[in-house]
Every structure is written in structure tokens, then in C-alpha cells.
Amino acid sequence: MKRLFVLTCAVVFAFVFIGTAAADKKIAFKKGDEVYVCGCEGCPCLTMSKKAGKCGCGKDLVKTTIDKVVKGKAYVTVEGKTMIFKTSGKYVCSCGSGCSCGAISQKPEGTCACGKPLKSAKSVK
């Protein structure tokens, strides 16, 4: 009985620890956040970052503010036009948990604001 209790505690601890570690990798975007986005109309990368950087197409990211976040999509205004970005990317900054650039993209091209390459979000989990 004692072994079962210890084993259960260890499993619960492992799940809590893994869940906390995974939560550190997620980037939270909310209304009013200042972000940098790919301003290229029709660009498939949909890059969004919390710090200035470059889009996968080589152009500078455009500074803007999130107007609203609905169902995993952030709405921003760039040059008078509303653009919609997913709040989770297929690719993320490869800097690690201490990084604050918060870069996400739907395409692997480009680098995050700190100059590191983007990596698959699946490898972060």
C-alpha cells in the first residue's frame, strides 16, 4: 500500500512538473499587447513577435497593438487594414524558456527577434 502511494505521488509530481514546463513554452497574446507582425499582405508566414525582428521574407516586422483575441486568433491593424494572426505558431523561437522575444510563425523561414532560428513547435512540447 505504501509503495502504491509513493508511486502515485511520483506520477502526479511528474505530470505537474511536465505540465508546468510545457506552459513556460507557450506564448500568451492578449488585447492591448504591443507586438511586431509581418505586414506583407498575403504572406503565408504570419509571423508575430513580442520584439522587433525580420519576417521570413526579409522585411522588418511592423510594430502594432493587438485589437482583440478571439478563438486563437489575434486581430491587429497594419496601415489601416485589419490582419489576423494565429496566436500559436507551427514554428517558435529556439532560444529556450529564458527568452522573451515570443516569436511564432506558420512557416520555418526566418529567425526570431534574438537572431536564433525558428524550430518546430512540436519539438518544444
Describe this structure in words.
- With 125 residues, this protein is α+β, with helices and mostly antiparallel strands.
- It has one domain (27-123).
- Helix content is 19%, strand content 28%.
- It contains 1 helix and 8 strands.
- It has one helix at 2-25, and strands spanning 34-37, 48-49, 62-70, 73-78, 81-86, 91-93, 104-105, 118-120.
- The chain has a 5-stranded antiparallel beta sheet, with no helix packed on it. A 3-stranded antiparallel beta sheet has the order 7-6-8, with no helix packed on it.
- 26% of the residues are buried.
- Mean pLDDT is 78; it is low at 4-25.
Concise account of the structure shown:
The protein is an alpha+beta fold and 125 residues long.
Please tell me what the overall shape is: globular
First-last Cα distance = 34 Å
* Number of domain units: 1
Q: What structural category arises from helix and sheet content? A: alpha+beta
Largest sheet: 5 strands, antiparallel
Range of helix content: 10-25%
Low-confidence stretches: 4-25
Q: Using the CA coordinates, give the radius of gyration.
A: 18 Å
Strand fraction? 25-35%
Identify the notable features of this structure and list them briefly.
8 strands, 125 residues, alpha+beta, three-stranded antiparallel sheet, five-stranded antiparallel sheet, single chain
